[in-house]
């Protein structure tokens, strides 16, 4: 096995020294994006495991995210990166081997293993006797529903402590939610000064080693100029509060025409449905070569006040004609349709559409409302969202205007009675295009370069 070759002082910023030298069993690391808190935890957990490996001991670490399908692109790759930083290899003949079903990274000589779990698979996690545990890491801890979700698994891990370890070392890392009343903000504040707890804050401003590149700084500055509160929330890690209005409407940028220096490459459709009770809306979005996101056109049908409501078969036909007309527009000839996204709770119209036209709508994996709103906030704060003041005409009924889209977003508000709570609610009136925009951002976050 190769010798580890790493200079920790070149890999860990000075502001994390107390974390690296922690004597506390419980360590809460909160901070803004690009603060490198997750990188520090990954390096430290590998470092701790190597102490046992060098003594021929088997030692295990458990890494948990709320949702299992986020593991590969986050903590799994982060631990692989950290192992590589110490000069070890992960491959068929390497020092470590990896598997993805289940997610594990195992040291060949000692069997020391990093186990990766989603909290959504807690029963399997709880029934597994891992033993020889030296560390547990909850990444993106704000995704969890309460402190109790940690407590019910922590006892299981403590019982399986390595006999040479004084205690199991626990880490929580997260970006503080915007809402100061979110349970995790309240919990971490209460832990400050508690015996056996280290609560650490960090932001990109603490970087002294040059990890934050000029390109990253330029992007941060752009967001800072567009939406200062969002900058404070995302990059400084400050729970800035919500306010009554959900969005800053100055960040919805109107266009009289399409940009002459850019072109639409891809088309996306997103739909919120209502049938006989509330409105059905479908948005047509364009993604340009320069990364602009443009609301190109809107289908909006409301059954309010109508004696005869449209049936799913009629709505399916309307939507099909809307997509056919917008996707073949001369203004973006050759643009490809990437996805059609729909509320996951909607089955009737989705099935009707497939039955009639043989095309699937992708049900969105909905998050908590505040988390879906945050994705829209991110897109707006990047200054990349636009809408056509006058869409190119299709000549179809219920189309060719984005006014309802803008008006609904202007009126979109949090319920003031719920603001000072852990679970703020929006007022569910005239919010159909608002939901549909959120589905678009959630369902296409990777394409839109949004944080998932």
Which key terms come to mind for this protein?
452 residues, Rossmann fold
Structure characterization notes:
There is one protein chain. With 452 residues, the protein is α/β, with parallel strands linked by helices. It folds into two domains: 8-214, P-loop containing nucleotide triphosphate hydrolases (Rossmann fold, 3-Layer(aba) Sandwich), CATH 3.40.50; 249-443, 2-Layer Sandwich (Nucleotidyltransferase, domain 5), CATH 3.30.420.280. It has helices at residues 8-11, 17-20, 37-53, 72-85, 122-127, 147-159, 183-191, 214-226, 228-235, 312-327, 348-357, 369-381, 403-411, 432-443, and strands at residues 26-31, 60-65, 96-100, 103-107, 113-118, 133-139, 169-174, 197-202, 253-255, 264-272, 280-288, 293-301, 336-342, 362-363, 385-388. Helix 10 packs across helix 11 (348-357). It is elongated, with a radius of gyration of 25 Å.
Query: Into which percentage range does the β-strand content fall?
Result: 15-25%
Q: Which sequence of strands runs across the widest sheet? A: 3-4-5-2-6-7-1-8
Number of strands: 15
Question: End-to-end distance, in Å?
Answer: 36 Å
SSE order in H/E notation?
HHEHEHEEEHEHEHEHHEEEEHEHEHEHH
**Helix content estimate:** 25-40%
Low-pLDDT parts are none
Shape: elongated
| The CATH superfamily title of the largest domain | P-loop containing nucleotide triphosphate hydrolases
CATH topology of the largest domain: Rossmann fold
What number of structural domains do the residues give? 2
CATH architecture of the largest domain: 3-Layer(aba) Sandwich
Give the radius of gyration: 25 Å
Name of the CATH class of the largest domain: Alpha Beta
Largest sheet: 8 strands, mixed
Query: What would you call the structural class?
Result: alpha/beta
Overall pLDDT confidence: 92
Query: So how many helices?
Result: 14
Domain Phage terminase large subunit N-terminal: 25-238
Organism: Alkalicoccobacillus porphyridii
Domain Phage terminase large subunit C-terminal: 272-439
Protein name: PBSX family phage terminase large subunit
């Amino acid at each position: 096995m190769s010798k580890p070759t790493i200079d920790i002082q070149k890999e860990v910023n000075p502001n994390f020294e107390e974390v690296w030298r922690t004597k506390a069993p419980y360590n809460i690391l909160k901070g803004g994006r690009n603060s490198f808190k997750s990188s520090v935890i990954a390096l430290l957990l590998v470092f701790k495991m190597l102490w046992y490996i060098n003594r021929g001991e088997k030692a295990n670490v458990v890494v948990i995210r709320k949702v299992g399908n986020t593991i590969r692109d986050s903590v799994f790759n982060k631990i692989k990166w950290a192992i590589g930083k110490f000069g070890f290899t992960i491959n068929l003949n390497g020092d470590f081997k990896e598997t993805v079903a289940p997610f594990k990274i195992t040291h060949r000589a000692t069997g020391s293993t990093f186990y990766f779990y989603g909290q959504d698979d807690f029963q399997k996690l709880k029934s597994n006797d891992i033993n020889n545990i030296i560390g547990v890491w909850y990444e993106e801890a704000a995704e969890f529903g309460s402190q109790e979700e940690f407590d019910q698994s922590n006892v299981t891990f403590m019982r399986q402590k390595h006999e040479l370890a004084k205690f199991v070392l626990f880490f929580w890392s997260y970006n503080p939610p915007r809402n100061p009343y979110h349970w995790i903000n309240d919990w971490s504040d209460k832990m400050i000064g508690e015996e056996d707890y280290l609560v650490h804050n960090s932001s990109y401003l603490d970087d002294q080693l040059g990890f934050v590149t000029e390109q990253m700084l330029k992007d941060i500055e752009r967001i800072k100029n567009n939406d200062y509160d969002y900058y404070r929330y995302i990059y400084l890690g400050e729970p800035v509060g919500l306010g009554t209005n959900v969005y800053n409407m100055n960040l919805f940028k109107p266009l009289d025409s399409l940009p002459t220096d850019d072109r639409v490459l891809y088309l996306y459709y997103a739909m919120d449905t209502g049938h006989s009770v509330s409105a059905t809306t479908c948005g047509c979005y364009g993604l340009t070569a320069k990364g602009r996101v443009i609301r190109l056109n809107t289908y909006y049908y409301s059954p309010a006040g109508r004696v005869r409501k449209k049936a799913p078969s009629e709505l399916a036909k309307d939507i099909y004609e809307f997509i056919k007309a917008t996707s073949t527009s001369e203004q973006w000839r050759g643009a490809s349709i990437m996805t059609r996204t729909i509320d996951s709770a909607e089955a009737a119209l989705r099935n009707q559409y497939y039955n009639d036209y043989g095309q699937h709508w992708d049900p969105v994996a909905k998050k908590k409302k505040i988390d879906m709103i945050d994705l829209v906030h991110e897109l707006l704060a990047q200054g990349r969202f636009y809408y056509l003041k006058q869409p190119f005409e299709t000549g179809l009924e219920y189309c060719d205007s984005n006014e309802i889209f803008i008006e609904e977003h202007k009126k979109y508000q949090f319920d003031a009675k719920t603001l000072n709570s852990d679970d703020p609610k929006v007022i569910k009136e005239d919010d159909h295009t608002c939901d549909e925009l959120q589905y678009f951002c959630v369902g296409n976050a990777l394409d839109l370069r949004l944080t998932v």
